[in-house]
Amino acid sequence: MDFRILGPLEVRDRGRPIELPRRKQRAVLAILLLRRGEIVSSDVLVDGLWGEDPPPTARAALHNYVAQLRRALGPGVVLSRAGSYLLDIAPEQIDVGRFERLTAEGRAALGEERVEKLREALMLWRGPPLADLAFEPFAANEASRLEELRTAALEELIDAKLSLGASAELVAELEALITEHPFRERLRGQLMLALYRAGRQAEALEAYQEARRTLADELGIEPSAPLRELEQALLRQDPSVAAPVRVAREIAAPQEKRRKTVTVLFADVVYPVTLDPELLRETSLAVLKTMRGVLEGHGAMIEQRSGDEVMAVFGVPRSHEDDALRAARA
């Protein structure tokens, strides 16, 4: 059985969706999933479902929701423990558990493996966490915590790409992330590095000034010491901020050639014929950058570009069981 909360709550049994039609019923399951492996008291559940003003029938309603969950999920999943409850599942049965494992493996890995592990972890996200339960009393804090984990993993992935020599191809993604998270100085520093290493030193320094203005105007603070030190390193063109040399992968012993199944996606951009040519060019570049970011974020390799058409391949060099699903989501 597979449980998913990195997006709307989903439960699948051998690929078959299990319907949980009542919102409070799904909320009980979500709270137990967030505390998987822990004994959760009825008081905690009541507080998570109704907040500070539960109805007089709250405990009776809770017992009904738990009974409905047991019928839907089958025996041995939701266990009772002296007025409390325990969700008896393995970490790998929930997408958060797999996400935490993959991010830990990514942080411990190096080079391409680090990028691949972090990318695979981020692929587990299907949208805002607990999206269908956003207005439940327990959800806001938990969703914020999960979003913080996702953003930190994105920062780790960008660091990993920078360490392999990526630069210009990261700029559009970083600018979008900074729009979403304007006070995260790590993202600001990554943008400065990406611009500098792409030969855009003036823009890199302007990115620092923009960060400084935002922090001063919105929070009344100066950039942290690491960000100030990075600006000084860029000004003096310190070797420590130079782009790493892209090292070709070592050529191993010849491998046996074999056929493999891949998923190929063609995407084309269509514009109104009356669009101003200059605006058309700017729009085209922005859209193609966005397309590349989305496709690569879902694990694709851009194999070909012709005009406004892009061909992306999923399953090369490493295949995944859900390559076709990744293509569909992209």
Task: Outline the structure in words.
The chain has twelve helices and nine strands. 51% of the residues lie in helices and 12% in strands. The strands form three sheets. Strands 1-2-3 form a three-stranded antiparallel sheet, with no helix packed on it. Strands 4-6-5 form a three-stranded antiparallel sheet.
Fold blueprint:
Layout: E1 2-4, E2 10-13, E3 16-17, H1 23-34, E4 39-41, H2 42-50, H3 58-73, E5 78-81, E6 84-87, H4 95-108, H5 111-122, H6 139-163, H7 171-180, H8 185-197, H9 201-219, H10 225-235, E7 263-268, H11 277-297, E8 301-306, E9 309-314, H12 323-329
Antiparallel strand pairs: 1-2, 2-3, 4-6, 5-6, 7-9, 8-9
Offer a quick outline of the entry.
The protein has 330 residues and is mainly α. It contains 12 helices and 9 strands. The longest helix is centred in the middle third of the chain and has 25 residues.
